[in-house]
Amino acid sequence: MATPCFARTAAADGPYRLIDEDGVIHITDAPTDPRYRAIQGFSGTAAGWLRVPNGTQLTSAFSREIRETAERYGVSAALVEAVIRMESAFNPWAVSAKGAQGLMQLMPRTASALGVRDSFNPRQNIEGGVRHLRYLLDRYPGNLSLALAAYNAGEGAVDYYGGIPPFTETRQYVQKVLERTGNGNTSVEPPPPAIYRYEDADGCMTFTNIPPISRSKGR
Prior knowledge:
Layout: E1 16-19, E2 25-28, E3 37-38, H1 44-47, H2 55-61, H3 63-73, H4 77-88, H5 108-113, H6 122-139, H7 144-153, H8 155-161, H9 168-181, E4 196-199, E5 205-208
Antiparallel strand pairs: 1-2, 1-3, 4-5
Helix pairs in contact: 3-6, 4-9, 6-7, 7-8, 7-9
């Protein structure tokens, strides 16, 4: 007797399961028996065949490099881990829309200045990122919030605003890193008052914190 044929449809494209007369379960992606039935909502991850690394596994993958580099530069390993988690979620191949690369999201120009030849090399990236973080901690002594703000938005922005820049991203960044490192009071200082600038008919430039009437705001 010829074995009956049956068509596989795209909507029911494997894997398939068959329970035979002896109660044995057969699973395949190329069924040869019409009794096979497609398994709906099935995935290797859900079945435990594929394991996606969780946050702890990703952290531990670089824990030795983080610990050794942090100790060498006198920076808290917990702080380095928090920065990496915020910057790249421990993805060594991460690239931002602005071109920052690797675990600690180094801009190419910054990486070059820090002696990092390959930003996608975890060891080099961590070395450069921690070195830069150490520099910022020394530049803003006793003020971790400003050092973190500078890491995120740049020193120029911190210096211009005289504190944490009034950027939502930067303020949230500082807040979350402080929370992850357990640095006491995690409240972020409010942004400095806006400064308005305008020039009168005689070319005299005026700066004020009071919005001039019918003049546009500038920074």
